[in-house]
Amino acid sequence: EVQLVESGGGLVQTGGSLRLSCAASGFPFSDRYMDWVRQAPGKGLEWVGRIRKKVNGYTTEYAASVKGRSTISRDDSKNSLYLQMSSLEIEDTAVYYCASTSQSDYSYSGYWGQGTLVTVSS
Amino acid sequence: AIRMTQSPSSLSASTGDRVTITCRASQDIRGYLVWYQQKPGKAPKLLISAASTLQSGVPSRFSGSGSGTDFSLTISSLQSEDFATYYCQQYLDYPLTFGGGTKVEIK
Q1: CA distances (Å), origin B55, targets B26, B60, B82, B83
Q2: Distance from CA of A47 to the nearest CA of B (A)
Q3: Searching chain B, which residue's CA lies closest to the CA of residue A67?
Q4: How far away is chain A from the Cα of B18, in angstroms, using its nearest Cα?
Q5: CB atoms within 10 A of CB A15
Q6: What distance lies between CA B86 and its chain's CA centroid?
Q7: What's the first-to-final CA gap in chain B, in angstroms?
């Protein structure tokens, strides 16, 4: 059974930083691209970014809204995905989901975690 | 970025009704479109990939169609468990983008 469990959310002040984690199990994590997607309270879904797998150099893609202040990384030995965010703004308040995709750029989020809430406050 | 426009943003329907949600892309995305269902407080669930491929375990009352810029999700006979918000997403190009969502409510 595929499981994705996010952690690391909480209350942070504007301008601060946060590192979210996602523990994966039940599928070949190292062989999958992985996504982060967020959802502000009462709003729609927003794709945050993606990390490719080792053979693709662990390269990343980001949404314009987080590019330059976010870093997605992974540790295949721990089946874990990370999202480091800095210079946090009120607008970054959201539930953050990690999601597994497949093995190419033409892929979508097939399995999702339950999400972790990040609240940015002044 | 490719803009995804869903309509309507909300609708009220009764159990047993046929419901259609549309999604329009700002440029040709061929068939690189998925549909998700989300219930309050839950993560999105993948319903349909590649515009029309029903995921395993998803009831056959759900169907997807379209190619290019115009797509639709149809629920042939709405059931109580289908009241939720539905999102389309294109995965042809980065940044991946979602439609604004369609909330299906009980009439």
Answers
A1: 26, 10, 16, 19
A2: 6
A3: B95
A4: 24
A5: 11
A6: 5
A7: 36
